[in-house]
Write a structure and sequence with these properties.
2-enoyl-CoA Hydratase, Chain A, domain 1; six-stranded mixed beta sheet; serine-type peptidase activity; Peptidase family S41; globular; endopeptidase activity; four-stranded antiparallel beta sheet
Length: 540
């Protein structure tokens, strides 16, 4: 056994034993670390081998039945947008269609459209991605993402180059991408569009989500590629272009390793160091500060209370007459944040949402408490698990045969002392989803703001989300997060199964690839403000 003895000093027996114990622990830790690495490698290998495994037809059918049983048990509004008869038929037809064994992800591409037919935007089946070893992941970090060399825009069933900042292969903005490695892009778009849905009969969400998800789906199918052949068309000239993943310079690799320091102000604005952008931002559009503009990209809840407290105090000090709230492309997020935000937009006590509805009093107990945690964090979380269970049960109740959860946003909330009293405009589009739609619906119903833009991607009358119970299909191992709460804004519902319809509809020119398109929504608002000011001026 190794012993640590300092020359010239006679150690005590206690010190020698202590040091030897430390050495033993360090050696055991090394073995444990090596074991974790080996297990990780085995996990990668096991996962990737499973992706190639053919699942028997009988097991595929059992996974379908398992999924439907879980949906009926936990989803609080399963037949909101599709009848039970139609959904039963779709599940039965899917099982009948299985004539041969399928790999897990082949099964995914057949099963996912059936889940999407439920027309709940939050409800999406998840495929199993290929895993990569530590060495492969390290190699990826030395190269730039292949499809990030350019920005793309999917319009209908076509894909175009929206921006080519680095002039890759001299490809011009507006170039159509016809094929990727001999596969028609239009076929891929149609295939991927079947994998998800918006809420109900919404008409705007799909085009925004496809732009966000196309290459995620493509990478799921093909893995991380080092190069691709593109067939392009520009001015009716068809060309073949080969693009390759670019290696980062040593300087870029070093920069990536450095964790940038984020100031307190940046933290409050929820600064993203990787993209060098702010999630929340306030600015004044006129030198006299009469028009305040708040942009929120997502309701992340990160230091939200502090941001809105400081922001609306600043707006009050500036004596702004108008507020523009821009939640375009905001896919939603925290109920807590939108409840806080609303408390700065009203002058009276309010209740943002109705009490969330569940299928049973114990539904909340099935939410993902441990999911996504490692072994160490799970051990610490286990201490609070009994309190989590007790709290969820005590916050649940039954009334007139229905089960409800006492959510803080379903309780009366008082307006803040610095709440804005002036005219409010809210900018929305098809990318405004979930929590963005809830706050828009409430502001519109209370006539507290003018909603400008296009129909929101999320439903006017609410959504099924809040917390999830992610079930894993027993044979294919696909995952399905099932929303446990029916969350509805505290309004009278229009029952149109659509998104929040704007007070003033403004076409966003979604397919404009000129790079200098005018922000028509913002222009409408500024023109309206100028008109209102001119009337006030004449009255004086």
């Amino acid at each position: 056994m190794l012993e640590y003895v300092k020359v010239g000093v006679r150690p005590s027996l206690y010190n020698v034993k202590t040091l030897n114990l430390i050495l033993l622990i360090m050696r055991k830790a090394q073995y444990l670390f090596l074991f974790i690495i080996l297990m990780s490698c085995q996990s990668v290998k096991k996962n990737n081998l499973f992706l190639e495994k053919k699942i028997p037809v009988s097991q595929l059918k059992r996974d379908v039945d398992f999924t439907y049983d879980k949906l009926k048990r936990f989803h609080p509004e399963l037949y909101w947008y599709i009848s039970k008869t139609d959904l039963d038929h779709k599940f039965d037809s899917l099982k009948t269609s299985f004539t041969k064994p399928l790999t897990p992800n082949e099964f995914y591409f057949q099963f996912s459209p059936v889940i999407a037919s439920i027309n709940e935007g939050h409800l999406r089946l998840k495929a199993i991605p290929r895993k990569y070893t530590k060495a492969e992941q390290k190699a990826f970090k030395t190269k730039r993402p292949l499809f990030a060399l350019m920005d793309y825009q999917v319009v209908g069933d076509k894909m175009f180059v929206k921006e080519n900042r680095e002039n890759v292969k001299n490809i011009k903005v507006g170039t159509e991408i016809l094929k990727i490695n001999d596969e028609n892009v239009s076929d891929l778009i149609r295939k991927y569009r079947k994998l998800y849905s918006s809420d109900g009969k919404n008409q705007t969400f799909q085009k925004y989500f496809m732009n966000l998800s196309f290459f995620n789906y493509y990478t799921l199918e093909k893995g991380y590629l080092d190069s691709v052949n593109l067939q392009t068309r520009y001015d009716n000239v068809i060309s073949d272009v080969f693009i390759k993943r670019q290696k980062k310079t040593d300087q870029q690799v070093d920069i990536d390793k450095v964790k940038p320091k984020i100031t307190t102000v940046q933290k409050v604005q929820d600064y993203d160091a990787s993209s060098k952008t702010y999630n929340r931002d306030l600015k004044f559009l006129k030198t006299d500060s009469s028009i305040a503009y708040i942009k929120v990209k997502t309701f992340s809840a990160t230091l939200a209370k502090k941001f809105y407290k400081e922001t609306f105090a600043e707006i009050k000090d500036a004596k702004s007459d108008y507020l523009i709230l821009d939640i375009r492309d905001n896919l939603g997020g925290s109920l807590s944040e939108i409840n806080t935000l609303y408390s700065y937009l009203t002058d009276k006590e309010f209740t943002l949402i109705k009490s969330p509805e569940m299928t049973s009093r114990t539904s909340g107990l099935h939410q993902n408490y441990f999911r996504g945690q490692n072994v160490l964090s799970s051990i610490f979380s286990a201490v609070g698990y009994p309190f989590f269970l007790a709290g969820n049960y005590l916050l649940s109740s039954k009334k007139e045969g229905r089960y409800y959860f006492r959510e803080f946003a379903s309780k009366p909330t008082k307006p803040k002392k610095d709440a804005f009293r002036g005219k409010i405009y809210v900018l929305v589009n098809g990318g405004s989803f979930s929590a963005s739609s809830i706050i828009s619906a409430k502001l519109k119903y209370e006539k507290r703001a003018l909603i400008i833009g296009e129909e929101t991607g999320g439903a006017n009358d609410g959504t099924v989300a809040g917390v999830n119970n992610t079930v894993t299909l027993p044979h294919s191992k696909l995952a399905l997060p099932i929303g446990l709460f029916l969350i509805r804004p505290n309004i009278e519902f229009d029952n149109n199964n659509r998104g929040v319809m704007p007070n003033i509809e403004v076409e966003p020119n979604f397919g404009d690839l000129s790079g200098c398109e005018e922000d028509k929504m913002m222009k409408w608002v500024l023109d309206d403000i100028a008109f209102r000011n001119s009337i006030v001026g004449k009255a004086k």
